Design the sequence.
């Protein structure tokens, strides 16, 4: 959908976040903006993540950008010990390790060492995504949706100089509406609900499945056949996430 919009990437992020903020405000009905450290920290991490990932996508390969963003589970596992007092078990570290290996295998044919600034932006995207998850999890006893509303509002505010340079066409508006609603608002409604009931590491590992769907849709709708290592890497990631999720599922079932 992003490729369908003929605007500067930062402007796309701004329009998308502006619409998402409005929709999330409507959903929250009576949002409570407390100005707490987790709420402000989460909104800042959200905005940094949005712009870092877009910058990484522009300045290095898309594979590098995605791979570096999804190093987030490793940061969550490390920082979560201090920030949330959530201590990873042996199976958690195994899942993180296999997930990272799977990601490298998945993008093996497309990883590049070029674009130093883009790769640094990708590292920033991974760290900020991790802190976004950690700050959301920190609000498990509250209402984390307000943090995402603030994050989207901040992203839109920062992007205003680019937004006013060019107005989207009617066709652009259609895609922007879809981006702001089903690609941003709805997923974060679901995510801020779920993050209250899972550990931060679980909240970081399961979304790693997301990049696997890109070649899946390309295969189903465009006939593009993924490479051998992409298939193997994807299977490794799915196995790692499943391995980590089964014990939690079994414990919940018995409870």
Sequence:
């Amino acid at each position: 959908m992003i490729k369908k919009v003929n605007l500067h990437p930062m402007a796309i992020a701004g329009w998308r976040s502006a619409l998402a903020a409005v929709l999330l405000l409507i959903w929250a009905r009576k949002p409570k903006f407390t100005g707490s450290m987790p709420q402000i920290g989460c909104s800042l991490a959200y905005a940094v993540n949005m712009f870092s990932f877009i910058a990484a996508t522009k300045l290095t390969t898309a594979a590098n950008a995605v791979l570096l963003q999804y190093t987030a589970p490793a940061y969550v596992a490390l920082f979560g010990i201090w920030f949330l007092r959530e201590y990873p078990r042996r199976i958690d570290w195994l899942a993180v390790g296999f997930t990272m290996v799977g990601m490298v295998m998945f993008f093996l044919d497309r990883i590049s060492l070029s674009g130093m600034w883009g790769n640094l932006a990708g590292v920033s995207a991974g760290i900020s995504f991790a802190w976004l998850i950690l700050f959301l999890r920190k609000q498990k006893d509250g209402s984390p949706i307000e943090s995402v509303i603030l994050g989207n509002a901040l992203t839109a505010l920062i992007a205003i100089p680019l937004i006013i340079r060019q107005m989207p066409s009617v066709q652009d508006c259609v895609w922007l509406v879809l981006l702001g609603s089903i690609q941003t608002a709805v997923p974060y409604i679901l995510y801020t609900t779920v993050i209250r009931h899972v550990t931060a590491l679980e909240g970081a590992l399961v979304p790693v499945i997301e990049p696997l769907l890109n070649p899946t849709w390309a295969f189903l709708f465009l006939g593009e056949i993924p490479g051998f290592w992409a298939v193997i890497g994807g299977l490794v990631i799915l196995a790692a996430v499943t391995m980590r999720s089964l014990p939690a599922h079994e414990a919940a079932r018995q409870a």
Remarks:
- The mean pLDDT is 86.
- Residues 2-254 form one domain.
